[in-house]
Design goal:
It is a single chain. This protein has helices spanning 13-29, 44-47, 74-92, 105-114, 130-135, 147-153, 175-181, 202-218, 232-238, 255-261, 271-280, 296-307, 319-332, 334-347, 352-365, and strands at 2-8, 31-39, 55-58, 96-99, 118-122, 141-144, 160-162, 191-195, 222-226, 246-249, 264-267, 284-286, 310-312. With 366 residues, the protein is α/β, with parallel strands linked by helices. Helix 8 packs across helix 13 and helix 11 packs across helix 14. The chain contains 15 helices and 13 strands. It has a 7-stranded parallel beta sheet, with helices on both faces. It has 2 domains: 2-167 and 350-365, 3-Layer(aba) Sandwich (Rossmann fold); 175-347, 3-Layer(aba) Sandwich (Rossmann fold). Helices cover 45% and strands 16% of the residues.
């Protein structure tokens, strides 16, 4: 029997990639007809079609938490998005709708529930997003990444599953072979992987431009640096072109290569990044994005630091000095890195997508 499944999520890769991992798991476990709903102009328009998934879009964007005239359009966009979502639901007639977060999933899940369809939510962060908080009471099932989120949502045990975040397959690779063949690195020397998500992180890039010269003088450090498109030329032109131990790129198509050879990373604290780091068990220095809604990245980082898998450095006065101290602490203390890696392994949920897919099929069958 084939089931029709509507999937909605977008705005950032952190909402799109869990959706794709869930779709992949659903397809492996049974016959499903998938339709993905994204927002016009969202990053999902670049990612989803490459996965050969049928897609439609609605006219919606997030409500900004600062003054901007764009917010005046929000009520109109929301009304249009609800009408478009209703039309999509009626035409596609799904058995179930999945929302993975972001402003796109709100109108779609609401329309699906009003049409009498089953609805599930997958929440990536410790602190639940606005869409999850608004729609939790409508959902037939909510898949969480952290037990603490259930307390914040005041959910009874019968309505949620702590499954973890669905992540892409194939994150682990032959580190020694990659180090030698792809980057020409010395496998006996430590590797630092710097990245701020697919778009890069300007504050991290600027801080590392200041810190790296001294660090490279003191330590035999090798660096992979994903800068993002906007900062790539600035970072590349600011570094000594003769250095063979630093590889700078605007974007890594296969981030698993870098994860596999990294001794530690410096990154933001997005939920999917953390889920991937747990699977590859790489010690981390987390620099939460300071303007994330509800400070959700900071709450994510606090949870991981509490578990002993990472060090959190927040962007406040003097933070670059704290970042340098954290880097040197990990470079000098191999035992600490090993303890952090072991702590990550306790947090890893490599079967998250499969667990979610199994429960979704149960919901659709009964």
């Amino acid at each position: 029997m084939s089931y029709k499944v509507l999937v909605a999520g977008g705005g950032t890769g952190g909402h799109v990639y869990p959706a794709l991992a869930t779709i992949e798991a659903l397809r492996k476990k049974g016959e499903v007809d998938i339709l993905y709903v994204g927002g016009k102009g969202g990053i999902e328009n670049k990612i989803v079609p490459k996965a050969n998934i049928p897609m439609r879009t609605i006219w919606i964007s997030g409500f900004q938490r600062y003054f901007t005239f764009k917010n005046a359009l929000f009520p109109i966009k929301l009304l249009v998005a609800l009408m478009q979502s209703w039309k999509i639901v009626k035409e596609f007639d799904p058995c179930l709708a999945i929302g993975t977060g972001g402003y796109v999933s709100g109108p779609v899940l609401y329309a699906a529930k009003k049409a009498g369809k089953r609805v599930v939510i997958q929440e990536q962060d410790v602190y639940p997003g606005v869409t999850t908080r608004l729609l939790a009471k409508f959902a037939d099932r909510i898949f969480l990444s952290y037990e603490r989120t259930a307390k914040l949502l005041e959910l009874p045990k019968s309505r949620y599953t702590v499954a973890g975040n669905p992540v892409r397959e194939g994150l682990r690779k032959d580190a020694a072979n990659l180090a030698k063949t792809r980057w020409n690195f010395d496998a006996s020397k430590p590797v630092l992987f710097i990245f701020g998500g697919s778009q890069g992180a300007r504050s991290i890039n600027r801080a590392m431009l200041k810190l790296l010269p001294e660090l490279l003088d003191k330590y035999e450090l090798q660096v992979i640096w994903q800068t993002g498109e906007k900062d790539f030329k600035v970072v590349r032109n600011s570094l000594n072109s003769d250095l063979q131990t630093i590889h700078v790129t605007p974007y890594l198509e296969d981030i698993s290569d870098a994860y596999s050879i990294a001794d530690f990373v410096i990154s933001r604290a997005g939920a999917i990044t953390l889920a991937e780091l747990a699977i590859v068990a790489v010690p981390a220095i987390l620099v939460p994005y300071p303007h994330a809604a509800g400070k959700h990245q900071e709450k994510n980082a606090e949870e991981i630091e509490r578990a002993g898998a990472a060090v959190m450095v927040t962007e406040e006065e003097g933070w670059e000095g704290k970042l340098k101290t954290a880097i040197e602490g990990l470079l000098r203390n191999r035992e600490l890195r090993q303890k952090m890696a072991a702590a990550w392994k306790k947090l890893a949920r490599p079967d998250a997508a499969e667990r979610i897919a199994d429960e979704i099929f149960k919901i659709m069958r009964f």
